């Protein structure tokens, strides 16, 4: 324990202290201060991101090996903070229109982001679990934030119950690993696992621990078959919350999974590779197949996130530095595409201003709101991975990594399943451009939201290819930090 | 300058084609027509330069095209005497046809499209004639094919026009397949596709053999025959000719430009361009002569019984192309090019004249419903007469003659002088000259002389009917809609594709004018007729020494074709009866036509009833269409239907896309059922997943 440790955890310190301070503000000022709190939250995210420039970005191990500040964590945190900040900004208009603009929303996101920062920086199973729970508990509350709305309440409850189950499984796995390796630090576990087990019983117990940890984390990234909560929660939660769920926590959980798989269980790659491959393929296939019949855009995007997580897992399945770099690039572009899509969903309001979620209401959008239709079309084409849109590039990278790791068949199957996904993405474009117009949406009220949509659309448009050198170098540097 | 000539039409086509309705009819017409007149004005000085000998051949590079290993292909424009001839033919006829279309297409709805296609065609044709290598030639070759397809099907709402366009395209594919095989073969043998390099290396390859379809065959014969198959397709030679008559479904200016004066002569041009190559194979030249003579005879015989004015001229074109080919086959490339040159003028004149008649007769194309038009459209009449005099070759030796007199007689004399197979071609040629004279004069007599027989025409009845309420020149669209079911040939394979299988003959048609008054065409149509009339009268007289003169010819061609000076000398020294024979048969044909269609109009009907079989044989075009229908079309459709129903739908679709789609949607239903909304189901699935993962990890 020294001051350097605090310097390395500066982002979390900023966010945690900031959250507490803002909680005090809201306690005394009430919901009148909501707009201020939202602004302050964004400022805190900016400050946390800036603090990554210092030791927090590359300092090494802190707090006696519990916490790690390296390039990988910095990359993931930057992405998490950007996604969280956008979720906060996007929520302002949504909640104020419903008359439920509360201070707690940005504060919960701040706390959740603190937990996520700890997740991606975890170097010990205990940090891992504490970070995960901090993130999750905030998320359960967020899901049922509109507590008078039965759908939101149901979503929060489902999320909580199933999340608790997943936490239990994870914790069980952690205890097994600890019990049979004698340590909770990733490094120590890696060393212990490198030693051949004394008996088959120990080998089996280690394997069980590994499988349970993977399952617990797979729940967080909603990989098949631990995805069941996703569509219900995404549909029921308020749209800004759904946007948040689909972006930042996904990055954090994926970062955590990658770190555990490589740092702690890197010697046991053969054991988890099969599970990851199965989960990856199951996610891409189910994410594609189940989305086809959906009529609710948020549900469809839930399946879309399952589908995308599957593709990102293909990069992890490769188990190489290139594969991990591909995962990070994938998550970056995925966050942009998903946030952009949800920002478009936030624009879907009927003439009275009430949120609309049916895909049918998008009919003929190209004639009533050409700009919005064009942006959504860009996101859909990009999600489908159709060149020259930027969504093609990370897909190419993960397949390339899979081929590089001699998993050519996995890449081939992955490419084939991406065709299924293309169907429903393109169906939305078809609905917007070729169907008879449905009643027009209420006009956009926020220039900020429009600007964010334009920004994300530009990033996933072919212009995104200009970012490849920088993004590629950063991803590879992040990945190298684990190997 | 040559770049300007070639690319101006392309530019105009792009402007008119993409601008289309947004720039309006007049702008599109001005741009395209203006570009063509500029190109024409730039082309003639080049041609005159070669005539006076002040110009030398040159190659102007444009762009690098393909660099791949040994294959080097560049865009380059080659200009020599042969190209210069084609340049003036293409740009002049094209410019005049553009102008003519101002009047002819005045009432059409999509004029910018029409003019853009015309200019696009001209560009492709110019690329073809200026090509310095076979690949660029193929580009132009396909380009004119495309433009031809688009223009034949210009009135795309007419099923017959669509069928004709597809037929033209498909039949040309056969020829183009041969052509492309020829190009591949040339590259294989010579290692280059550059025309000068090939021609220089060709004599060295004579006599070598090459493996083809498991046999050793003479290299040069094989290459020449493959290339000639391409020429046969494009130039509608016997066997691949069936598309040309149907191509008359396109607007008449198109027929004049593409299917008479320029595109269909591309085959002749190609044989002449590659003449040193063909000179290395006697077998190939023999085949060229034979096919040319056979086409010449075939098309002329069929032309004598056609009633559609455009079809008569179409078969006449086919027949004249046969003349050009057998001229090339006997080694008289200069004569072939000369006939190509003069034919462009008088055949374009005849087509445009026919267009003027059709315009006057309210889109009636059946000559049986014409008659006595001489007084009503006198300018058209005189133009058509000049064209007829030119095609039948009227003239007095060593004094003056119409265009065809010089070129056709040069071909016939060259055929006689070359001896051997050429003698047979000569006899065929003389007989065809008789037929040419007969069907040409028959056309003139039926159209312009005799009594008016307009009353029987549905087109005229429509026009008269419409005229009661509306303007005089109305009813254009009406006529088209009407075409679709009346005089068109619903199946392009056309069983007895004439409207009346049993020709009623001129006598049976209802006489009278039905109160209709034909009117002369506007000046935009008459000016091209006038210019072409001058060409039809003087082109032969002026240019004969340059093209086929024994001494002057070599100086003009300067090696751009294999100019056989010896043959040219022999040609001028043939016996007097050979020189007089064409004139004699021409007069005979005129006399028969006069007898049958002016003096005794009942004679043709009596003749046809006496020789029923012969008549039907000719009327059905030697049953070529029926034969192809039975041999190619029916089996192709059968194979296609089998592959479609059993192969594609039954096997590939069923187990492929459709099967996968069904599987996916079934999976969608299943997952939706699984997504019950109950937490315990979700937890169960999670735990099952956990158990599965643990089991799998243990097992492996």
Give the averaged pLDDT of chain B, no decimals.
86
What general form of chain B does the structure show? globular
What percent of the residues of chain B sit in helical stretches (DSSP H or I)?
Answer: over 70%
Task: Give the overall average pLDDT of chain A.
Answer: 91
Would you count the extended β strands of chain A for me?
A: 2
Show unreliable segments of chain B: 469-503
Specify the structural class of chain A. mainly alpha
Q: Radius of gyration of chain B from the CA trace?
A: 29 Å
β-sheet strand percentage of chain A:
under 5%
How would a textbook summarize the main sheet of chain A?
Answer: 2 strands, antiparallel
Which spans of chain A of ≥5 residues are poorly predicted at pLDDT below 50? none
Largest interface: A-B, 39 and 26 residues
What does this structure look like?
The complex is a heterodimer of chains A (483) and B (700). By secondary structure, chain A is mainly alpha-helical. Chain A contains 21 helices and 2 strands. Chain A has helices at 3-8, 10-29, 34-51, 55-58, 71-98, 104-121, 125-143, 150-181, 186-194, 200-220, 229-236, 239-264, 269-291, 297-318, 321-346, 365-368, 370-383, 392-404, 408-434, 447-460, 468-480, and strands at residues 60-62, 67-69. Chain B folds into 2 domains: 2-450 and 520-616, no CATH class; 657-700. Chain B contains 29 helices and 6 strands. A two-stranded antiparallel ribbon of chain B has the order 1-2. The longest helix of chain B has 51 residues, at 2-52. Chains A and B meet through α8, α10, α11 and α13 of A and α28 and α29 of B.
Please describe the topology of this protein.
The complex is a heterodimer of chains A (about 475) and B (about 700).
Chain A: H1 3-8, H2 10-29, H3 34-51, H4 55-58, E1 60-62, E2 67-69, H5 71-98, H6 104-121, H7 125-143, H8 150-181, H9 186-194, H10 200-220, H11 229-236, H12 239-264, H13 269-291, H14 297-318, H15 321-346, H16 365-368, H17 370-383, H18 392-404, H19 408-434, H20 447-460, H21 468-480
Antiparallel strand pairs in A: 1-2
Helix pairs in contact in A: 2-3, 2-6, 3-5, 3-6, 5-6, 5-12, 5-15, 5-21, 6-7, 6-12, 7-8, 7-12, 8-10, 8-11, 10-12, 11-12, 11-14, 12-14, 12-15, 13-14, 13-19, 14-15, 14-18, 14-19, 15-17, 15-18, 15-20, 15-21, 17-19, 17-20, 18-19
Chain B: H1 2-52, E1 58-68, E2 71-79, H2 81-104, H3 111-129, H4 134-152, H5 159-190, H6 195-205, E3 209-212, E4 215-218, H7 219-234, H8 243-246, H9 252-261, H10 266-273, H11 275-278, H12 282-303, H13 309-329, H14 333-360, H15 378-392, E5 395-396, E6 400-401, H16 403-418, H17 421-448, H18 458-469, H19 476-483, H20 505-508, H21 523-548, H22 552-557, H23 565-572, H24 576-599, H25 603-610, H26 612-619, H27 624-655, H28 657-674, H29 679-699
Antiparallel strand pairs in B: 1-2, 3-4, 5-6
Helix pairs in contact in B: 1-2, 1-3, 2-3, 2-9, 2-14, 2-21, 3-4, 4-5, 5-7, 7-10, 7-12, 9-14, 10-14, 12-13, 12-17, 13-14, 13-16, 13-17, 14-15, 14-16, 14-21, 15-17, 15-21, 16-17, 16-21, 16-23, 17-24, 27-28
